[in-house]
Amino acid sequence: MNTQLNTTIKTDALVIGAGPVGLFQVFQLGLQGIHAHVIDVLAEPGGQCIELYPDKPIFDIPGIPRCTGRELVGQLLQQVAPFKPTFHFNQQVNEICAQEDGRWLVTTPQQQFLTRTVFIAAGVGAFVPKELKLEGLATFLGNQFFYRSAPPQASAGQAVLIVGGEDAAVAQAIAMAEDGPNQARSVTLIHRRDVLQASTAALARLAQLRAAGKVQFLAGQLVGIGVEGERLHSVTLHTPEDQTVQLPLDTLLVCMGVSPKLGPVTQWGLDMERKQLTVNPASLATSAAGIYAVGDVNTYPGKKKLIVCGFHEATLAAFAAASELNPQASGVLQYTTSSALLQQRLGVLTSPAESVQTS
Predict the structure, then answer these.
(1) pLDDT higher for 264 or 60?
(2) Residue 302: left if φ>0, alpha if ψ -120 to 50, beta else—which one?
(3) Does the pLDDT of residue 355 top 70, yes or no?
(4) What 3-state DSSP class applies to 172?
(5) Helix 69-80 and helix 20-31: axis angle, to 10°?
(6) Is the separation of the CB atoms in 120 and 297 below 8 Å?
(7) What's the whole-number mean pLDDT along residues 104-123?
(8) Could you name the CATH architecture of 8-127+259-328?
(9) What is the rounded distance in angstroms from the CA atom of residue 54 to the CA atom of residue 73?
(10) What kind of architecture, by CATH, is found in domain 131-256?
């Protein structure tokens, strides 16, 4: 579920980051009976796995000899589904402020959250689009100029120029050129060199569309824009042959990839070491009560930046948070193989009577 509200959302747990470790944090919280809201700056879950290596093999996930980043994220989403987390995509946390009652007020440009616990699973930082820096271009951002994706009306019947040479750019070129109500009048894909990086299937489909005249590809670097009145009219392309070409357009979509930026995390008043949050390795607690950090964003003696280590950290953080949220609980360790309560939370059992007793 993806929602954007103007009211303050109250919750027991807020996870910042929807990468693999953030998703597993949601799962471990769910086992503890804690529902989580999840914020991510990207438009979809997956973090580094989706942005940096969606189709590259991963070999060190326990019990899975080989999977791609995309497959791992898909499996994790299936795993958290019983707990029905609430996702808030395309949002970046700007501020975290302590409240008098011990809760935390977490603010994004679109939303406020009042939460008892915070789990920072921001990896190496928020992935933000790589900028196309042309004088005067920023004026048209959100109107004729977009990063990563554009609204349907920006492509339907329009002359679209897409800048980029990787998965996202190729996928957008294909989507806008395909037959349908949002099909562009023309699609031109621009990359600095005549080499594109995407899946074999996507490149094959792009080749078909190019052969059919539905997509044009040009190599070169954008060096300027043309404006008529209040509209972005064209861009100037400098080609490898040292020529300058004016390309008319209605919509400019930039998909040049993303880069991680730690961003506002450094301003939240949490103890840090070499741009990483210092935590207690037994609980993954930061220097602020109720805030935990898991995955590549944290550091402690012996820390290893591996997904499997992040999964371990998420487990310990969930247990620590459960004790904080419910200090009267027994704390007895339960197992998914035999606990009727955990199996109920997972949706395996409908009542404790269905549990099989084990010795």
Answers:
(1) 60
(2) left
(3) no
(4) helix
(5) 20
(6) yes
(7) 94
(8) 3-Layer(bba) Sandwich (3.50)
(9) 9
(10) 3-Layer(bba) Sandwich (3.50)
Cα(342)–Cα(335) distance, rounded to whole angstroms?
A: 7
Residue 231 structure tokens: 């509209």
Q: Is the pLDDT of residue 129 over 50?
A: yes
| DSSP3 helix / strand / coil % (the chain, rounded to 5) | 25, 30, 45
Q: Is 164 left (phi over 0), alpha (psi -120 to 50) or beta?
A: left
pTM: predicted TM-score of the whole model, two decimal places = 0.74
Residue in this structure with the two tokens 């796995």, named with its chain if needed: 49
Domain parsing of the chain, residue ranges = 8-127+259-328, 131-256
Long-range Cβ contacts of 105-114 (<8 Å, 24+ apart): 105/8, 106/14, 106/16, 106/39, 108/39, 110/4, 111/4, 111/5, 111/6, 111/9, 112/7, 112/8, 112/9, 113/8, 113/9, 113/10, 113/11, 113/14, 113/37, 113/39, 114/8, 114/9, 114/10, 114/11
Helices 200-211 and 167-177 pack at an angle, to 10 degrees, of 40
Give dist(CA 111, CA 40) in Å, integer. Answer: 12
Question: 105 by DSSP, 3-state: which?
Answer: strand
Rounded Cα–Cα distance for residues 297 and 260 (Å): 11
